[in-house]
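Worked Example 4.2. Consider the chain below.
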Amino acid sequence: MKPFILFLVLLAFIDMFAQLPIMSPFAKSLGASPALIGLVVGMYSFSNMFGNILAGYWIDKQGAKKVLIIGFFFTGAILLLYTIVTTPSQLMAVRFLHGLFSGFLVPAAFTVIANKGKDGKQGKSMAISGVAVGISAIIGPAFGGIVTSKYGINWVFIIIAVIMLLIAVLSFFVLPNGVTAISRKIEPPVNTLFSLLKAPMLAISFTGAFSLMFAQGVLAYMLPLQVEALNYGTHFSGILLSAFGITAILIFGLPTNKLFDAYQHHHLMMVGMSIIGIALIFLSWAASLLFLFTCMVIYGIGFALLFPSMTALLVQHTDQETRGKAFGLFYAFFSIGTVVGSSLTGLLAVSFGMGFVIAACILFANTLWLFFYFKNKPSVLGSLE
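Applying the procedure from the previous section yields the following structure tokens:
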């Protein structure tokens, strides 16, 4: 069952990663302004945030099977709407619906993986699930860039839509009922969200999620336009984005994944955020294809350290009664980070270099905040670790 769940994670992230090299140029081709391009890129993540939170409650009450099937079915159907979009406003509406329903997928799948993991091995378990994310980061951008350059952007959406609709049907027969623990507790939604946000170690996990996806939002907006300005083909955007996925998947899948349980998760988080910040500073200077590839490899190392560490931190400090809601909130912070990253750089109309520097500063600032937090709050850390 776990390989099938990992495949669902892979497909859900391919849907997201395949958009990275094509959405900015697609919005631009429809006549969108720089600010509107940023909003179009960020709209998916804005609505995805609400989908994540809704999924969290639904998972804990009904189990993941319904969430996954409905998410795959509606996401697949909505992807087909991209093929008939002709204006930026229509594109914005489709992006909203796409993000909303795709927000059901990842929290459900990761809740299942977390519930099946062994105590004390959360880091390695999340690293293995990160292999699926890494593979999607390799396949998705390359697929989006190459298919668009050879056959047109509509075929990207059609192919992914057909696969998702098929998976929705397959999941109905393959996934057992009750793939996650079901909670019958009735709690005020706002109270539950605040209680999760106030938990120190969960808040730190959410900070990591925001930081990573703020950088990813800037990357999604800026990198394709930077590659275009340097007169490289569209497909190079996808290949460059895949480079960080290849790097991450090697760290996830090789014996190096043991380090995720050998060191404290928050330490690896801080190192990962710092490395991504360094990669973004280097990207702001990049003017050659070789330098761009080098930057994306460094970015991949940081991603590989950050992603499993912050998800393992969440698993370590939740139980099966709250894990679905916690993962829903966690991926909501993913969405918030992407929205703020892409929208802010679009609204400011900054250059490629300045956009990457802004993202790096956010990562460095959050790293410093965590460093001083743990330095000044040893008692809190001791009681939770």
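Residues 179-186, 379-385 have pLDDT under 50 and may be disordered. The domain at 2-174+188-384 is CATH 1.20.1250.20 (Growth Hormone; Chain: A;). Compare this with Example 4.1 before moving on.
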